[in-house]
Specification:
By secondary structure, the chain is an alpha+beta fold. The protein has a single domain, classed as Aminopeptidase, CATH 3.40.630. It has four helices and five strands. A five-stranded mixed beta sheet has the order 1-2-3-4-5, sandwiched between helices. β2 and β3 form a beta hairpin. The radius of gyration is 15 Å and the shape is globular. The termini are far apart. The structure holds coenzyme A. Coenzyme A binds next to β4, α3 and α4. The site of coenzyme A has 21 residues, from β4, α3 and α4.
Length: 143
């Protein structure tokens, strides 16, 4: 298996992977132009793992100069529990650390049991002291 940087040309394969994965929700932010922009803004922080040139796992990661943010950590079901999820997020944390960012967040839906179990088993702290507020501009097609 081969870990490499995510490329804009991976977009359609990634969308297929996300669509077949319960727990992952697709939004406007997953469109091709938005993904291309994200990868441009966050070089060397987004990865895929391939098996025989088929993408079987991925992670997206960005930062705002202060904190890191992980999104869309996905491993295909047949490849789970082999350490690939951990390998991917550790690669991101290591790159973030190189640029001086030592704290990273991930937003996880409360009803995604697999993901919540995963992050807690890896030592990530569930924040009960923070409320997340979001604002969507009126021209967005996102619900
Ligand atoms: C969450 C996910 C990425 C984990 O990937 P993975 O490659 O299986 O994870 P790893 O092999 O690195 O880690 C496995 C370890 O994490 C924990 N873990 C993973 N899945 C778990 C589960 N369903 N329940 C409990 N613990 C779990 C265990 O400690 C496990 O260790 P073990 O191998 O000793 O049992 C994968 O289950 C997935 O793609 N889920 C669907 C997509 C998703 O919801 N992503 C998260 C969005 S925030």
């Amino acid at each position: 298996m081969n870990l490499r940087q995510m490329l804009p040309s991976d977009h359609s394969a990634l969308i297929e992977l996300f669509k077949e994965t319960p727990g992952v929700t697709l939004r406007d932010a997953d469109s091709y132009p938005a993904t291309e922009r994200y990868l441009e803004r966050n070089p060397e922080l987004n990865f895929v793992i391939e098996d025989k040139e088929i993408i079987i796992a991925c992670v997206m990661c960005g930062h705002d100069g202060r904190r890191g943010y992980l999104q869309h950590l996905v491993v295909k079901p047949n490849y789970r529990k082999l350490g690939l999820g951990q390998k991917l997020f550790k690669e991101c944390l290591s790159r973030l650390s190189e640029i001086g960012i030592d704290k990273t967040h991930i937003f996880v839906f409360k009803d995604n049991g697999i993901a919540n179990d995963f992050w807690q088993s890896k030592g990530w702290i569930l924040r009960e002291d923070v409320n997340l507020y979001s604002y969507t501009s009126s021209n967005s097609t996102n619900a």
